[in-house]
Amino acid sequence: MSVGLIYLVRHGQASFGADDYDVLSPLGHEQARVTGAALAARGIQPDRVVSGSLRRQQASLAALADAAGWSPDTVIDSDWNEFDHRAVVASHLRGGKISVTESVTPREYQQTFVRAVDAWTAGELIDVEPFSVFADRCRQALLRVADDDGTTVVVTSGGVIGVLAARSLAGDVTRWSQLNGVVINAAVSKLLVSPRGCTMLSFNEQGHLEHDRRLVTYR
After folding, report:
1. Which of 73, 115, 120, 161 stands the most exposed, by the fewest C-beta atoms within 10 Å?
2. What is the pTM of this model?
3. How many Å apart are CA 95 and CA 89, to the nearest integer?
4. Long-range contacts: 45-48, Cβ < 8 Å, 24+?
């Protein structure tokens, strides 16, 4: 029986609250390097490496591969990109803008973000990529790498991992937002690919980060 393994790695911490979110923070680079070293220490040598096209994803992959000592060709596939969270929040606020400033605390932003994502998931926001389209492209991206035997490492984002985990664990995307909300930066989720399909063996592994609490971040 032909089987394969897919490791889904969330990118390192991005620049939350900055003008350009899509840039790894110094901590994000460190998280990615720690994850790469941990995967290499486990003897993981991927046959292929895939990343979304977002800068934070590609920078995470570069740091991870360097620390792991990998030098494979990389496939860039934008279907692994995260949904546009800023657009979702702005749409929920009917064209308004919100950011983490002196007048908006991270807690207040998170509350707004959760409400916006719930509305988006329910199909109530019409001027952004529909959730159904996002969920389907995540599935299609997974199917493309699941066609290959061997070991694949994919650097992607929390929302994508949440969708794929929900499908694997529950058979649909009903619980995706709860899973999305707990995915740690640079955490690893593992899928087994077999003739029966994709089965999630582990979700949100973070033991390689827990020796230093600084490295355990959600944003």
Report:
1. 73
2. 0.91
3. 9
4. 45/70, 45/151, 46/7, 46/70, 46/72, 46/150, 46/151, 46/152, 46/153, 47/72, 47/148, 47/149, 47/150, 47/151, 47/152, 48/72, 48/73, 48/75, 48/145, 48/148, 48/150, 48/151, 48/152, 48/153
Task: Collapse the DSSP code of 91 into the 3-class scheme (helix H, G, I; strand E, B; otherwise coil) and give the result.
Answer: helix
**Is the dihedral angle over the CA atoms 42, 44, 45, 49 positive or is it negative?**
negative
Q: Which residue has the tokens 């949904």?
A: 83
